[in-house]
Amino acid sequence: MPDDGDQGAPCRLAGAPTPLQTVLLEVIPVCDLILIDGAPFFAVAHHDARFLRTSGLAALARRDADGGYTVLHLEHCEAINREMAPTHARWGWALAQGLDTLLVQAAKPKAMTEGDTTAAAALPIRWHAEAAARTSIAGD
Predict the structure, then answer these.
(1) Does position 10 have pLDDT exceeding 60, yes or no?
(2) Is the whole model's pTM more than 0.70, yes or no?
């Protein structure tokens, strides 16, 4: 196993990973805040959903030229790694619309308040005309 100072060395694991072993994700470098209806999300490449073994909100999305995102599909998943995969009913359609990003909210944090000044710096979020939302951010 590499030590903390040797981040570039490959890590070889024998057998199935245990809960204590970490998996590196291709995290899309975004310095700006990603908010969907006031709730913070983080972005990963769409093919990295298989590493997110947690429940939460997940949105199939397309990164736009202005740095914002177009949400193609949003739903609550009991296991993001099993549900946001090529077997998903909307996956093929989303790929045809330019799917390249998965926006994730692994834990249900408190939504930002109107007085929060960081909300003004959020990236633009658009909804595709044919987007399907199977849940509400507010939990309605």
Answers:
(1) no
(2) no
